[in-house]
Design goal:
By secondary structure, the protein is an alpha+beta fold. The chain has helices at 29-47, 136-158, 228-233, 236-255, and strands spanning 2-10, 54-65, 68-79, 83-90, 97-105, 108-116, 121-127, 168-177, 180-189, 194-201, 207-215, 218-226, 259-272, 275-285, 288-300. Strands 6-5-4-3-2-15-14-13-11-10-9-8 form a twelve-stranded antiparallel β-sheet, covered by helices on one side. It has a three-stranded mixed β-sheet with strand order 7-1-12.
């Protein structure tokens, strides 16, 4: 028997509460913009962002998708000001290892997956609209999602944005944080359709959290036992159509999900080579933990090559 495994993940898209920011009164937009820039400058100084030209962070992660929990190794590499790559390894089922790569190179973004299948097996992995049948609009949406995700992460780690992303920042007020107060910034980018709020600790000036709206991701996993005779009966095109139909059904279901709050939290700050960086990054979706990284290996200004960030 030949085992065909199809993994589809659609819509790329400690619980401590923060209060809503206090609404500002009698402060014009220009003053809010100036205040936001002052706070970002303080955050970069507290982190030591100006010392960073390139950065490598690695560790382990766990990800909860539906009723499944997976984990593995993760590595993030940054070549400032506009090159970023994330590589993560997961094992959705026993004996199958999938390496997923998401990269940004200037205004371009791309994704790739590599997998190892057990003997006699065939594994097909699809993440979002990443596939040969994706339309131009779907590919563009995927690229925009990756650029949004990296922009949010960079704001939380170094309080900066990629040079290819134009940001509008405005002071939104104060919010109660676990250990005091946080300054809240409204962050927007028209070019990549990003809207978020960045929370900065008033005492340390370091990023605490970034909040934004999104849809819950959905996971569809199809595992079938197919005999060699069945394989002979079905052409590669027919098998691909079955997967395409399942993917489109999953995406349609995901598109109907309501918008919910998603939070990126940055915790356990420690100094690495004179730069203060979070060693734990987590994502919650509608109040439920979705993803958590434990970062243990850091390299400040490693010698990275630009070719690494180009799509192969």
């Amino acid at each position: 028997m030949t085992k065909l495994i199809v993994v589809l993940i659609s819509v790329l898209t400690s619980f401590i509460s923060f209060s809503l920011p206090t609404e500002l009164v009698d402060q014009d937009d220009a003053a809010k913009t100036v205040r936001a820039q002052e706070l970002l400058t303080q955050a970069r100084s507290a982190i030591g962002s100006d010392k960073v030209k390139s950065l490598s962070m690695a560790g382990t992660y766990r990800q909860i998708m539906g009723d499944r929990e997976m984990g593995g190794d993760i590595e993030l590499e940054m070549m400032l000001p506009d090159k970023f790559l994330k590589s993560s390894v997961m094992s959705p089922i026993a004996g199958v290892e999938i390496t997923r790569i998401e990269a940004v190179n200037g205004e371009n973004a791309w994704m790739d997956t590599q997998n190892s299948a057990p003997a006699g097996g065939n594994v097909v992995f699809r993440m979002g609209v990443n596939g040969p049948n994706a339309s131009a609009d779907q590919q563009k949406a995927q690229q925009t999602f990756i650029r949004q995700d990296w922009t949010r992460l960079l704001l939380g780690v170094l309080a900066i944005a990629p040079s290819s992303v134009s940001l509008e920042c405005s002071y939104a007020g104060e919010a109660e944080a676990p250990d005091g107060l946080a300054d809240v910034l409204d962050v927007k980018s028209k070019s990549i359709g990003l809207t978020a709020q960045l929370f900065l600790d008033q005492k340390t000036h370091r990023p605490l959290m970034l909040s934004y709206q999104g849809r819950k991701p959905r996971v569809a996993m199809i595992t079938r036992q197919i005999s060699h005779e069945d394989v002979k009966k079905k052409s590669p095109e027919e098998l691909e159509k079955e997967m395409k139909d399942a993917r489109e059904k999953s995406q349609a279901q995901a598109a109907s999900e309501p918008m919910v709050e998603i939070q990126l939290r940055f915790e356990d700050y420690r100094s690495e080579g004179g730069v203060t960086l979070p060693h734990r990054v987590s994502r919650t979706i509608d109040g439920q933990i979705s993803e958590e990284w434990q970062l243990t290996k850091f390299k400040i200004n490693p010698a990275l090559k630009a070719e690494k960030f180009e799509k192969k």
